[in-house]
Specification:
The chain is an alpha/beta fold. It has 14 helices and ten strands. Helix 1 packs parallel to helix 2 and helix 10 (about 175-180) crosses helix 11 (about 190-200).
Length: about 325
């Protein structure tokens, strides 16, 4: 099984925790982890990640360093400094990985793997460029499809977990289409994910949400009631395989106002690594000040509080 993850220095710790959960719950599977690194990833970071998989047999890790010259080929990054470079690496996998690799399972660094990935890996995607699960948040918003430029009926998938058919990408020279779409960077809101949806919305293979259960789905959002998403989300709670801490709240952030859903699941695997108990605060001084002022204004009723939703029953997951 070939698994790809992209990381920078700030994401090394959650990536390592993800790798531990992956290896622990797939001990009978031979896995090659292809870790694509920005230039912020140090040799010590790589040694720490390598140390995770050395605890398990049948697991190997390979690192791919992305240099400045490669990054400068990507229009949306050179034009928009606010975008994290690693967000786009997966679009260039046909240039980064060896031609001998036909398909890969891509995993974001902010996921936890709870069960075997063999059923997912063994899916036949020979006729599809990508297989991924629906992003119920974006797919429920009509205005998003006006921005994307295609009908809402085709849906929208989350690229944080996806099987990528590299043979298809090479055969159809998809990288050229990716770059063409990146040239219109101002249209992109969800970066590479938008690009993949714009190009593959008619040709993708839909995966069950259990393979990418985003923690934002765990709130009872009124927009999902009595819709097809409500049923799909409820079903995924019974047999979730991959938990995705998508969105702005992560279990490893020091400044969360409330504990993100299923944080205890992340801590369960984190405590088995060298990063036990570690939390970060990467906010700039300006953002910290802005957040502080916003919190004070909300506390005194000078600014409205954000909506709060009831949390679903996640006892079967924990």
């Amino acid at each position: 099984m070939d698994i790809v993850v992209c990381t920078d220095h700030r994401f090394v710790m959650p990536t390592g925790v993800m790798m531990y959960s992956l290896c622990y719950n797939n001990q009978d599977v031979d896995i090659v982890l292809h870790v694509i690194c920005s230039n912020s990833v140090s040799d010590n970071d790589k040694a720490d990640l390598n140390g995770v998989i050395q605890q398990f047999s049948g697991k190997r890790i390979m690192f791919y360093d992305i240099d400045k010259n490669f990054v400068e080929k990507i229009p949306a990054i050179t034009n928009r400094a606010d975008i994290t470079i690693t967000a786009y690496f997966r679009l260039f996998l046909t240039e980064i990985l060896p031609d001998t690799i036909n398909k890969v399972l891509y995993l974001d660094g902010d996921v936890i793997v709870r069960d075997s990935l063999l059923p997912l890996w063994n899916l036949d995607i020979s006729d599809y460029p990508v297989a991924a699960a629906t992003d119920c948040m974006v797919a429920a918003e009509p205005e998003e499809f006006e921005r994307l430029g295609y009908p809402m009926a085709y849906g929208y998938f989350n690229s944080g977990v996806c099987i990528i058919n590299l043979d298809y990408w090479r055969k159809h020279n998809c990288i050229k289409d990716f770059v063409d779409l990146l040239d219109d960077g101002d249209k992109l809101r969800y970066y590479d994910q938008d690009v993949l949806n714009m190009l593959f919305h008619t040709s993708k293979l839909n995966l069950p949400i259990k393979y990418n259960l985003m923690t934002v789905f765990l709130y009872k959002n009124p927009k999902w009631n009595n819709t097809k998403f409500e049923q799909k989300i409820s079903e995924s709670l019974q047999e979730s395989v991959i938990i995705h801490y998508a969105g702005g709240d992560k279990p490893w952030f020091k400044y969360n106002k409330n504990e993100p859903p299923l944080s205890t699941l992340f801590y369960k695997y984190q405590k088995c690594t060298i990063w036990r108990g570690l939390k970060y605060d990467f906010r700039s001084p300006n953002i910290k000040l802005r957040n502080f002022i916003g919190d004070k204004m909300r506390a005194f009723g000078l600014k409205p509080k954000g909506p709060s939703y009831e949390l679903r029953d996640v006892s079967k997951i924990v």
